[in-house]
């Protein structure tokens, strides 16, 4: 089993099934004891803002706020720095436990042996 799982979600409300799948996989992995790093890019960046995840709805899917809580309990949530800048999102705007970081941090997370990376 991987020591760490890095997931990059590129979809938000514009592709709800793909978005929900990424959050679900991240939350299940975290609940299983895997160290998880979830990266929010593109439209998924909005879900790092307070209240935005509660607006997301997808039939037969776990509520996004619950998935986020599960992810943060066993991992990290990072918003892409360029994606944040394009949307006017600053570190002070984020939910507790989330951060903004760039590509160099992403690369450093996916390069060590034993790390598995998924992109949704």
Structure characterization notes:
The protein contains 4 helices and 5 strands; from the N terminus they run βαβαβαβαβ. The chain is an alpha/beta fold and 120 residues long. Strand 1, helix 1 and strand 2 (35-40) form a beta-alpha-beta unit. The protein has one domain: Hypothetical Protein Ychn, Chain: A (3-Layer(aba) Sandwich). A 5-stranded parallel β-sheet has the order 4-3-2-1-5. The longest helix has 16 residues, at 16-31. 34% of the residues lie in helices and 22% in strands.
Distance between the termini: 20 Å
Order of helices and strands: EHEHEHEHE
For the largest beta-sheet, the strand count, sense and barrel status come to: 5 strands, parallel
Structural class: alpha/beta
CATH class: Alpha Beta
The low-confidence runs, each spanning 5 or more residues with pLDDT under 50, are none
Q: Which term fits the overall shape? A: globular
Largest beta sheet: strand ordering:
4-3-2-1-5
Query: In the CATH hierarchy, what is the architecture at level 2?
Result: 3-Layer(aba) Sandwich
Corresponding CATH superfamily:
DsrEFH-like
Rg over alpha carbons: 13 Å
InterPro entries: DsrEFH-like (IPR027396), Sulphur_relay_DsrE/F-like (IPR003787)
């Amino acid at each position: 089993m991987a020591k760490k799982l890095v997931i990059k979600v590129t979809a938000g409300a514009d592709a709800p099934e793909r978005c929900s799948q990424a959050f679900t996989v991240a939350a299940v992995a975290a609940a299983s004891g895997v160290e998880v790093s979830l990266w929010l890019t593109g439209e998924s960046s909005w879900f790092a803002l307070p209240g935005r995840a509660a607006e997301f709805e997808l039939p037969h899917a776990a509520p996004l706020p619950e998935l986020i809580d599960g992810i943060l309990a066993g991992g990290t949530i990072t918003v892409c720095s360029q994606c944040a800048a394009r949307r006017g999102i600053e570190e002070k705007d984020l939910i507790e436990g989330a951060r903004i970081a760039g590509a160099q941090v992403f690369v450093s997370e996916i390069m060590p042996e034993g790390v598995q990376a998924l992109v949704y």
